[in-house]
Amino acid sequence: MTTDNQPSDTYSATLARSAAIEEELKVTPEKFRVLTGDRPTGALHIGHLFGSLNNRVRLQNLNVPIFIVIADYQVLTDRDTFKDIAQNIRELTLDYLAAGLDPEKCVIFPHSHVPELNQLLLPFLTLVSMAELDRNPTIKEEIQAAGLKQINAGMYTYPVHQAADILFCKANLVPVGKDQIPHLEMSRLISRRFNKRFAKKKRVFPEPHPLLSEAPVILGLDGGQKMSKSRNNAVMLGATADETANLIKKAKTDSERQITYDPDNRPEVANLLLVTSLCTGRDPASIAEDIGDGGAGQLKKTVTEALNEYLKDLRARRAELAKDEGLVHRVLADGVEKARTVAIETLDEVRQVMNMTF
After folding, report:
1. Tens digit of pLDDT for each residue in 190-227?
2. How far apart are the first and last CA of the chain?
3. Is the same domain home to 150 and 253?
4. Which of 78, 181, 197, 275 has the fewest Cβ atoms within 10 angstroms?
């Protein structure tokens, strides 16, 4: 049994619950509502594709209701620049559509255009303490990664804003990696506290469950860090075949000629084998055996060919979609309208239970 302040799940329990949900999704997808999304800090890369986009398309095709938030306000929490946000939103949306997300089946929207969602931030902030915000390990890691000397309040309250993103549509399922569980735990905490304080007769918010992804982490081409556009170590989805080949040529490997799949001792080589495996469906160790003593040159040739073949159709779709200059506006305007309809209903319910109607 947990108290109001304690995490509601151990990691092992979360893993077990996530596995059980996967089985339920196959039978009763309508029981769930998913919220997921990205910050518009740039176009997406293959790490996003294998780590989250393919999973979103899978859930969409299972007929699970899915909301995809473009968290544009949250770009301001750790970046001085805002001039590229509109262009980044366009690139992000094109990547979504090219990857197979269908705006007829999912709701894609930037949260800055849904004022009712953001208004939930105010009552939610009254439900958490400064000490609880201070303890969030994910925020500490993001502050360190961004190299921030001064922490603005937006960064500090990031998990509460994320709770508003999740709970405005009453999402009960959020695909996350292990490192994002503390963020989701804050949303669960806020849901419990809101219902306990304001909605004792009828629960307003569900407690969203994490759907843990088995997607592997794709290292950057420089080896030791997670793939990231800001670190210039990524293969972007919109890159050309030649650009991809040039990037892979520069990828870090090691001095051993015999290619083996050894993630612990040869992470850079293993990473390239993993990418090839994800593109081809073959076991990475088997791919390594085929390359044998072909060395880094043959490895890079193999991964380049596999990646370009895998991305060929996606890139063709993206190029075709980009020709329609009004497409992104139409998709997002429709998404905002749908999201606002839901958010208005939720905010009205929140006002009623908080006795703020007149």
Report:
1. 999 999 999 988 899 999 999 987 777 889 998 767 88
2. 39
3. no
4. 197
* pLDDT class of 253 with cuts at 50, 70, 90: very high
Domain that includes residue 21, residue range? 11-215+325-353
What confidence tier does 50 reach under pLDDT thresholds 50, 70, 90? very high
Q: How far is CA 168 from CA 75, 201, 345, in A?
A: 20, 20, 9
Residues 6+ apart with CB under 8 A from 199: 205, 353
Question: Does some domain include residue 221?
Answer: no
Neighbours of 145 (CB within 10 A): 13
**And the tokens for 243?**
């650009």
On whether residue 91 sits in a domain, the answer given is yes
Domain CATH code at residue 85: 3.40.50.620
Distance of CA 65 to the CA centre of its chain: 16
- Residue 107, strand partner residues: 67
| Entry field: residues in the chain | 358
129/312 Cα distance (integer angstroms): 49
Does 52 share its domain with 194?
A: yes
Backbone φ and ψ of 15, nearest 5°: -65, -45
Task: Specify the CATH number for the domain of residue 238.
Answer: 1.10.240.10
Burial of 226 (0-12, 13-18, 19+ CB in 10 A): middle
Torsions phi, psi of 278, nearest 5? -65, -30
Supply the pLDDT for residue 3. 46
Q: Are residues 50 and 195 in the same domain?
A: yes
How far is residue 72 from each of residues 86, 112, 165, 176, 242, measured CA to CA in Å? 9, 6, 12, 19, 31
Convert the pLDDT of each residue in 140-182 to its tens digit: 777 777 677 788 888 889 899 999 999 999 999 999 877 778 7
Q: At what angle do helices 181-198 and 158-167 cross, to 10 degrees?
A: 70
* Alpha-carbon span 17 to 25, nearest angstrom: 12
